[in-house]
Hints:
The structure holds 2 protein chains of 2 kinds. Chain A is an alpha+beta fold. Helices cover 52% and strands 18% of the residues of chain A.
Amino acid sequence: MRSIAAIILANIRKRKTQSILIALTIAVAALMFSSALSLMSSVHKPLESMYDKLNASHTLIWFDTKNYNPADIKKWWESRSEIKGVQSFKLHESNDGIIYKGEKLANSTIFFTERPGVQVTQDKLSFIEGKEAVSPEPGEIWITSNFAFKHNIKIGDKLGFTAKDGKVQMKVSAIVVDPQFSGTFMDLVRIWTAPGELDRLFGSNAGNEVIMGIRYSDYSKEPYSWKAFENHLDGSFYGRKVDYETISLTYLTMYTILGTILIVFSIVLIIIALFVIALTISSAVASDYKIIGVFISQGFTPKNIISIFTGQYALTALIAVPVGILGSWFTVRLVLDMLLRSIGFANFDFSMTLPAIVTFLIIMAAVGSSALIIARKAGKIKPVEAIREGSVSRKYSNGGKFNALRFKTLNVPAILGIKQIFSNRRQSAFILICAITVSSIFTFAVNVQNSLVHLSESPGYWGFDNRQVVMTPTENAGNLTDQIIMNKLDRDNRVKQATRVEIYDMTSVSEQVGKPSRNVIAMVYDGNMDALGLENIQGRNPKTENEISISLNLSKEYKKTIGDTIEVYIAKKKVSFVITGIMQSIMGAGYSIRIEASAIKKILPEYLPNQYAVVLKKGEDVNSFIKSYQNEYGLKLDVKSYEDNVKDMTNPIAIGGNSIVVILCIIFTLVMFLVIFNMTLMNVHWEKRNFGTYKAFGMTSSQIRLSLMLRTVIITVAGVIIGIPLGLYMAPGIMRMILDSFSIAKFPMEITLLGTAAVIPVCLLITLISTWIPSGRVLDISPRNLIVE
Amino acid sequence: MKKTVIKTKDLCKTYVSDGEQFHAIRNLSLEIYEGDFTVIMGSSGSGKSTLLYLLSGLDNVTTGDVWFSDIKIDSLKEKEIANFRRMNIGFIFQAINLVPNLTIFENITIPGYLANKNKKLVDQKAYELLKMFELHELSGRLPSQVSGGQQQRVAIARGLINSPQVLFADEPTGSLNSAQGRNVLDILTNINEGGQTVVMVTHDFKAACRADRILFIRDGKIDGDLELEKFTTDNLEQREEKVFAYLTEKGW
């Protein structure tokens, strides 16, 4: 046993560089795998802790007090045994945006919510900056952490709003973690005000709405409670609801996607590491052929020999895996810190014990078993043959016969480079697979990155229309009626199309096919939807009052397809629609519908959508159009570019996606470097004698190194030629898988030819560097040394 | 008057191993003449192979000078020495050292292409050599697919492809059976008869008998220099007796 251990250590010392490279590959694989497992298992915990600490509501509902009596609703919820507490706040919704340093920030709905003047025990806030208090002072506001970080708003900054008397400025006195509103992907902005501020700011318009938080003692009962609640309200709730799943999605989506991607690619990396180990063992057995023969002749059993090779790589893994796991602790810590920052936690104790044990066992088992399988051939070596022949006779029968002289117009290094591709076919195949994998991942990354940058340029894919300008009558609209606005737009010869639209949120899909009801966002259009560029992945847009397009998530959840009917509550009335289209939409966390305004008019005859979507004629300048309307209508009409709105919705995806893409590129650059470096090192060792012979008949070290480089470059080019189309082909599928939870079935790939072409030099550069450095070993080869051998 | 093709002066080669110096060649001066078949002999560890590598430019000298024609090869840089090897020498190894993944034809032609010669002419010469050494039917095979004797004939053809000034051979029959060895020696003798300078290291008495000149090396120095007539089979017995007596005198 001691002699085996001594040989193992001597072998590791002898092949120091190679051992380090293999250890690095295993460590990176362990790092990725362990990070992925840890993220998947612990990413939800900080959110749960934050929810417990702040006694946060699991479900938020908000409604007009004209429809329900808040006291009655509160009483009903409080009577339920599974409910721990109910907290309600006065609410005013606004779509008029926020002005910060002269620029309009929020294009999404703003929830002005009054903090009561007393200490609340539920939906407490965590203060990140500013003085903790029961409520803001009059004239001051508290804003959510995600909103403040996104726009770099500091304590003492002033934000402008449209109030009943025109624009008002309010001072930010605290930045808080607001459990339901601080998620990265949350598209609603909550502004906390002092008690009584809503009446002061918005006058008679304020105070009609209430937002109520419900905290469960047992959240698993939520579907039953909600069903009972709707039954209590005669079938449907005429208001809006956000549940814990949706809230957690706004925080954790990016981390879940990161975890999924890491786990997929860490498996790819583990497979690559196993291949590297297999090839390294084969090479080591071949070069130690004679020594193995000597060992066997001295009484080592085949089992001992197998133990030497298996032990060598098991020992390497034994050191590398814990290093990788330790690295993953820092990685997970780093990722969780981003999450903790967004939820206002300074610290969080997370345990990596289980992921670490699982990673250790899986990688050790994989390395050990692959080493065992490959090392078995070392045990079969016959001592006399090995000692007499000195080296294993390599089989070149097929690849070696490849006639490289058909390329004899090339120089000798090129001929030899080509020859080596076919004579070391196993190595070449492995480098090729590696080049295909890495180039396809780079192609995927560069095009996804480009698509993410241009996300807002393809609104149709995300469920948005292609309007350029959106107009909304404000709190101060006064006598600016719909008729005046429509007449003005109809007469304006810059306008190609103007359509009344609204994001109508008082809708829910009723309980059906065994699934509970679900609050959904309705995109309402009073006009031709096709002309506004609205797309469906199946079918067509609704054209009549009883037709509907539903989002992919709804289609999946309620198992509905084109031609089926679906029941939707609109203003408390159950309406049956025929599904004409299935659409992609990231609105309402992937749960939305698209209907004609006439569908609501049928129930509410006075109904008119509250916004105007304007498409301008070709060549018209959007900014000057907006400016002219802003000048004409001032505070009565909010006029803004729609592109910013789409950007607000898609930016979190773009930012999250970009981070993932960058991480992927860094890891696989490292992988390609390690693989080619190791293969080249092995090749130099393996071909030492031949390189000595080449030198003897007059080749320089540089020419030999050039032949090695040409070999890897040719293989890489072949890999890239396959990898790039593969990456382009796979990218939409991978993105679909990743964005599935967003109700996205088709990812709008914006192919960048320049970016895709850049994959070629990047791969070649990695290849050149990772071949050139280890090929320096050729300099040490002398014909004299080989002759002595 | 014979023309000198290689000349050395005060040649030394010292190896350092574990801090200890080993003097393989000590202040050795000699001349090798054009058209000669020179054999270097000596007991194991005498420095005969080291001398061959120093003369051929395959190894660097520690001190002293080596002139190859008018080129002072001990001071050449890597690129220059590589170019020198391509253009001036051929080398035959005891271990043969054909490149196993190149075919017989490729093994012969690659050094020719490397010397930037016209590739058609290189191919033509390769075919001539293959025919001369009765290898023409094996040109597409890999070295592992032919016998040891055939491999060594390929190595000789490879050594001759660039028409070198000197063909060096380090124990070319050492890994062959007697029939194969005799065949290789016949080839070397024949090409020497054609004017090719050959320098061969051997410890084989029969091989030594093919020489015009036998240099005997002991402890890194020349201990004897025997000149012979050109080899023919006519007076073989007398020749062998003469060589045997000389070698016995040298304590071989």
